[in-house]
Amino acid sequence: MKSYKKEPFIRIDRFVPDMRNILLWTKIYGLEDEGQKYFIDQKCAHINCYFTRNKSLFGDLRYFDVILFNLQDVSKGAYNLPEIRSSTQKYIFVANDSSDNFPVCNPVYDDFFNWTWTYRFDSTISYRFITIYNTDYEELGNHFRWNYNMKPIDASLKSQFVTKSKAAVVFLDKCESRSKRKDLIQDLQRNLAKYNLDVDIFGSCGLNQCKRKTMNPCFWRLRKNYFFYLAFEDSLAYDYITDIVLYAYNNNAVPIVYGGARYDSYLPPGSYLNAVNTSAKALAASMHDIIENKEKYYDFFRWKNYYIISKSPILNACALCEVLNSPNPVQSTNKD
Fold first, then answer.
1. What phi and psi, each to the nearest 5 degrees, are found at residue 68?
2. Which of the residues 164, 223, 245, 299 could staple to 231 if both were Cys, CB 3.0 to 4.6 A apart?
3. What is the Cα–Cα distance from 253 to 304, expressed in whole angstroms?
């Protein structure tokens, strides 16, 4: 097993006293800019953070306040790790994908990281793939209470559904997945056939293509033709819900979700169907019933009277810099 020395610095002379120096040990998607550029461009509340990939910048790795390691590289094994570290440093495990897709099993990482920056709600720095706002476009954060007594939608919104005639669609290019979602889709197709309904698959995993370089033609078809969109995740990991659910929400369709997240914490109540812990037979019956009963279908869109749902920037580094500037930063959980 690979080992490393972890030694305190008795005194560290800061090159810039209030700068938080962050070393990207591995490549991390979305964090490509060097220096303070990211924090300035994003108009972060704190801009005294500095990104670099230059491991020799200070001549000693212990001068870095933070070292970031991404999930994909860590899951490949333990190699080329720092040989020495300061007990005051933050080694941050960064995950922008599912732990089910990239498991980390090497024991060298036991007690290696002292902070986490992932989609998990219990991370040191947590992020979501989607953000919820009220209708005044004020972000509601992570700890608000959903409105369960929502008023019906108006005639104007109802009129946008009149062209819908097809049951469900999914945009799918990754055919094999840890969640085995393709098997569920095929099972659902067999059960929907009893009602003369179907699931259309667009992308390399199906027979249909948008025939354009952008997704806009697919989104147009979803909005005009389909009642449901299958927002099936590629893995069933705890708290893992990506922005594919927005394909439905942004295009006047009802998402049918399938994943490991607690969807009632992330999505408006009554706005989706959950394919977890139900059979394809029961799901097909529910879809048919909702399609036949327009008032039931309309109820799935009551959330539009109260909320706006949009895509979040993955790994928003403003949050990282804010935590590093906190007067009461999260205590290290790593053992000396």
1. -100, 135
2. 245
3. 12
